[in-house]
């Protein structure tokens, strides 16, 4: 298999068809069609299903695509690495970020990054672990910053750096009736909103929190994304668990901590993850450095990372 053939395969997916792929690659349609035909001949199985409105992939095509995306991305990264090491300000950094990071330190990290790399394209994909980890795994992300309960992510699939640890709180809307008497039993009878994955109806760490308080886990649970959780908290009587640094944030207006309760959520940590077998380009490594630095406890004398000039 030739690199040009794999690049054509990826372009067909990215653009939705052979004509658009040819335009993206600055090739003729005939050249892209020939690459696909030769690739199928070498694979020995059909890879594409031609349809009137574009192309679909066979099962074999999807399997090859996953590797083709990884190979073509690594070739692009190798070129960017060499150019950036020589002082060139170009390339692309792809980062998956948790909403917790987005709402706290991402803006400052981006500002610091731009003081060194003005022209490197930055692609930010926001989502929880279930969304960003597969993309880090298949090479379509360079870095992922995820939020997890302390000790939750312990496998060694990725290189992991803890950049922040924070307390979590039980939260509800301002004026919620439970604020007057927030016993564990009263809280477990309410409807809860969780943004983390729920496996077979269980969240072991959350269940343990209730068990330590001597009550059963709540029976009514909503699973959703962070923005939806905030909307539900503000407009109904659901309760949830939030990182303490988000309380007081403009996006968390109307949401308050439930004080004096027996329920004690475990701390949350922000982890910066990379693939152990893929070195970061200088630009990606610097963005990771900026994220790490801005996540440290704030101090009046904090300065941007070496190589930047804070122009506030």
Task: Based on the model shown, name its key terms.
single chain, 312 residues, alpha/beta, Arc Repressor Mutant, subunit A, D-Maltodextrin-Binding Protein, domain 2, five-stranded mixed beta sheet, 11 helices, globular
Q: Note poorly predicted spans.
A: none
How do the SSEs run, as a string of H and E? HHHEEHEHHEHEEEHEHEHEEEH
Number of domains: 3
**In total, how many beta strands?**
12
Account of the protein in words:
Helix 9 links the parallel strand 8 (192-194) and strand 9. The chain has three domains: 3-81, Winged helix-like DNA-binding domain superfamily/Winged helix DNA-binding domain (Arc Repressor Mutant, subunit A), CATH 1.10.10.10; 89-166 and 269-294, D-Maltodextrin-Binding Protein, domain 2 (3-Layer(aba) Sandwich); 168-266, D-Maltodextrin-Binding Protein, domain 2 (3-Layer(aba) Sandwich), CATH 3.40.190. It has helices at 3-15, 18-25, 29-43, 59-85, 99-102, 106-116, 129-137, 184-188, 204-212, 226-235, 282-294; strands at residues 48-51, 54-57, 92-97, 121-126, 143-149, 159-166, 168-173, 192-194, 221-223, 239-243, 255-257, 268-274. The mean pLDDT is 86. The chain is an alpha/beta fold and 312 residues long. Helix 1 packs across helix 2 and helix 6 crosses helix 11. It has a five-stranded mixed β-sheet with strand order 4-3-5-12-6, sandwiched between helices. It has a five-stranded mixed β-sheet with strand order 9-8-10-7-11. A two-stranded antiparallel sheet has the order 1-2. It contains eleven helices and twelve strands. Helices cover 40% and strands 20% of the residues.
